[in-house]
Design a protein that fits this description.
single chain, alpha/beta, binds thiamine diphosphate
Length: 538
């Protein structure tokens, strides 16, 4: 008979999991051993549990199935908590498997014990803890279904050390197949009618479109129905940004004129987005009076914050398919509306290179990189002000992927790049990160180096937690507190990982850096970025 640990591994393999990320712990050596006997699952040994969790999240997005991270009890689970939160905010399915204290010691305040149902309450979609091996298959099935039902998210399974090593009765696990929720024919008819008659519609595209075939379906519907498309927060890669129907993103610091125009829409179709805080511009868009069709696969997200003309508890792809099966039409004024939104986006995306006395203007570099990005590039971003131009000054094209934490978690960029380089060894992977974020999870570069996974690091060094300094200057001008950084020799760190290093101090060195960024092979580039260029002008 299989042990519970072997059952767990067989279950994961049956769901198509081919890679999992871990920092080992004595509390789950039985699972490590089961993986030893299961080479179909590539176990990636990471340097920090946040790195393991972030890698699993990026891998989930690229492989279109839940990401899996394995961590030890107490300290390991605490380190991984940031990834559970990001999975919830980013709507990404993540299974966090925690080796738990022995079953007999549960709730006995044992060494490194945590009650995960309390720790992750309100964050994870499902939290399970086995007290006997017989419960393991059931908990796995429930966790898997919870992650993938409705809006995807994290599940946490605490499996006691002794339980994992015990024989597990029951039938072998099978693949769990979940059907996508589709709108009813009547609902789809109503949506089509609203689209046919709207003079100033806008389609707001969210993360549920980030599935195989989703981008193509969205483009087809936008073109056939003549719908301008805006994307949700950090979802720029869902729609070709150079397309005349691309109206920009709903993110941080949208220009006032663009916001005014969005508020002139007479129909907002929010497709596959929860309409969270930032996408909805602080819950201000759609504004009262704008007709809203909200399509999200979980009724709990419908109608609670915005008056909704047509709430649809369905997935984005079947909704797009339903529209594809209906006759499109658009009133004559539609073209002018699309052109108006496009023009506002172009104004926002325009950039004139400038200089600064204290280093390279990072936006100059990013704006110049955009047109040269390889057609199949994967760019991962950490959180920080260096990231801002990636969202508005690059025209993302079909085939390119942008992996950035919707949660705004620092530390995401480097592990996401490692996961991307492992998942797609032939594709160019660039990780853009600040000097703050790099020293949080930059150690995961060791994983890429160990596996010979090529990636490029583009590190913006401005000796500051720059984003926070910007807020600080706005709220308390001239009173710098807690945001200055004194860095080690970052280029030497890159070299220590065996990476070819490039240090860029001046604008005239950017052409050489751009060439290196689009050439094949690994690279560790440290750019001495201007802080003054991003601070509010006095
Ligand atoms: C884990 C985490 N801690 C703190 C923050 C708050 N925060 C957001 S951006 C930022 C500064 C980022 O600094 P750096 O990586 O140097 O990039 P920069 O903003 O300077 O470009 C901080 C501290 C966060 N988002 N995530």
């Amino acid at each position: 008979m299989h042990t519970a640990a072997q059952t767990l591994v067989a279950f994961l393999a049956a769901q198509g999991v081919d890679r999992a990320f871990c920092v080992p712990g004595e509390s789950y050596v039985a699972v490590l051993d089961a993986l030893y006997g299961h080479p179909q699952i590539d176990l990636v040994t990471c340097r920090h549990e946040s790195g393991a969790g972030f890698m699993a999240l990026a891998d989930a997005r690229l492989a279109n199935r839940p990401g899996v991270a394995l961590v030890s009890r107490g300290p390991g689970a605490c380190n991984a908590a940031i990834a559970v939160h990001t999975a919830q905010q980013d709507a990404v399915p993540l299974l966090l498997i925690v080796g738990q204290v022995e079953a007999r010691d549960l709730r006995a305040r044992a060494f490194q014990e945590i009650d995960y149902s309390r720790m992750f309450d309100g964050v994870a979609k499902f939290i399970g803890e086995a007290t006997t091996p017989a419960q393991v298959p059931e908990l796995l099935a429930r966790a898997w279904a919870a992650m993938l039902t409705g809006v995807p998210g994290p599940a946490v399974l605490a499996l006691p050390e002794d339980v994992l090593a015990m024989p597990c009765p029951g039938t072998p696990p099978v693949a769990v197949a979940l059907a996508d929720a589709a709108p009813s024919p009547e609902t789809a008819d109503r949506l089509a009618e609203l689209l046919r008659t709207a003079e100033r519609p806008i389609l707001l595209a969210g993360g549920d479109i980030d599935r195989p075939g989703g981008r193509e379906a969205l483009l087809r519907i936008a073109e056939t129905w003549q719908l301008p498309v805006a994307v949700g927060f950090r979802r720029q890669d869902l729609f070709p940004n150079s397309h005349p129907l691309y109206a920009g993103d709903m993110g941080l610091s949208n220009p006032p004129a663009q916001r005014v125009a969005f508020e002139c829409a007479d129909l907002v179709v929010a497709l596959g987005t929860r309409l969270g805080d930032i996408t909805s511009q602080g819950y201000a868009f759609p504004a009262p009076g704008q007709a809203l069709v909200h399509v999200v696969p979980d009724a709990a997200w419908l109608g609670w914050r915005f008056p909704t003309a047509l709430p649809i508890a369905a997935h984005a792809l079947p909704t797009l398919a339903a529209l594809a099966a209906r006759n499109p039409a658009a009133p004559p004024g539609r073209a002018a509306w699309c052109a108006r939104l496009r023009d506002l986006h172009r104004q926002d995306a325009a950039w004139t290179p400038r200089t600064a006395p204290d280093g390279v203007v990072f936006t100059n570099l990013v704006a110049a990189l955009g047109p040269r990005l390889p057609a199949d590039a994967i760019v991962t971003l950490d959180a920080g002000t260096f990231g801002a131009p990636f969202y508005r000054k690059i025209e993302w094209q079909p085939g390119q992927r942008l992996l950035a934490p919707i949660s705004g978690a620092m530390g995401y960029g480097m592990p996401a790049a490692v996961a991307a380089a492992l998942r797609h060894p032939g594709r160019p992977v660039i990780c853009a990160v600040g000097d703050g974020g790099f020293l949080m999870t930059g150690g995961e570069l060791a994983v890429a180096a160990a596996r010979g996974a090529d990636l490029k690091v583009l590190l913006s060094e401005n000796a500051s937690y720059g984003s926070i300094r910007i807020h600080q200057e706005r709220a308390h001008p001239g009173r710098t507190s807690g945001t200055d950084l004194v860095n080690p020799d970052l280029a030497a760190i890159g070299a220590a990982y065996g990476y070819p290093v490039m240090a860029v101090r001046a604008e005239h060195e950017l052409p050489a850096l751009l060439d290196a960024l689009v050439a094949a092979g690994p690279l560790f580039a440290v750019v001495h970025s201007s802080l003054s260029a991003v601070l509010p002008s006095k």
